[in-house]
Design brief:
The protein is an alpha/beta fold. The protein is built from eight helices and twelve strands. Helix content is 42%, strand content 22%. Bound molecules: calcium ion (CA).
């Protein structure tokens, strides 16, 4: 069955081109042009991916992403203006899985779409059982469940992947580059700041004091490690 993709874009010319390309690449694409419509549609139907423009006439793409994240782990690929670097970071903070800069080429967009869907399929096919522990942190890989000192924590897919990788080897220092390559399997998001943003998101959920993390620790100049506390 072909993957179902919901495109949220208010510029009709772009939307037409994207939907045409997605359909011709074998995806089943729907299009809505407002944030409210995107949320309604995502609640009503089962999609595999949302492509979400940042600038929409009603809600911003960021707000759509935040609201979606409160109720769903649907992967989100954000469309972001090339000039606004801050928006990319904020988009990831809002729970987007990846972003593409406008103006983009269709092959570039399709490559990002396939990468996200491939990661999701990998998640599904990877060893579906197993518990990973680091101190008071426990990951149930099969159930995609995480608890910290017995308290359940809700993570996005990207956050879960990152934490799961770190928890493979507690105490090992992973470089940002290594994290991005292993998790996002391309050099496109070689932008190390994306790793930093996902780490910051995780800290807000896992640490008592996210400003002074004790579990997900920065090793200055090298990368990150998961401490057994
Ligand atoms: Ca727009």
């Amino acid at each position: 069955m072909s993957a179902r993709i919901l495109l949220v874009e208010d510029e009709e010319a772009i939307a037409d081109a994207v939907v045409y390309t997605l359909n011709s690449e074998g995806f089943d694409a729907d299009w809505v042009d407002t944030g409210e419509a995107a949320l309604d549609r995502a609640r009503a139907e089962a999609y595999d991916l949302m492509i979400l423009d940042l600038m929409l006439p009603d809600l911003s793409g960021l707000e759509v992403c935040r609201r979606l994240r409160a109720e769903s782990v649907l992967p989100v690929l954000m469309l972001t203006a090339r000039t606004a670097e801050v928006d990319r970071v904020v988009g990831l903070e809002a729970g987007a899985d990846d972003y593409v800069l406008k103006p983009f080429s269709m092959p570039e967009l399709i490559a990002r779409v396939r990468a996200i869907l491939r990661r999701r399929d990998l998640d599904r096919s990877e060893a579906t059982t197993g518990i990973r522990r680091a101190g008071g942190l426990e990951l149930d890989v099969g159930r995609h469940a995480v608890s910290v000192d017995g308290r359940n924590v809700q993570l996005t897919n990207s956050e879960f992947r990152l934490l799961s990788l770190l928890a493979e080897r507690p105490g090992h220092v992973f470089s940002r580059r290594e994290l991005m390559q292993r998790l996002w399997d391309s050099t496109y998001v070689g932008d190390a700041r994306a790793a930093d943003v996902h780490v910051a998101n995780l800290r807000r959920k896992l640490e008592l004091d996210p400003q002074n993390p004790v579990r997900l620790v920065t090793v200055r100049g090298v990368g990150y490690t998961l401490a057994e506390v």
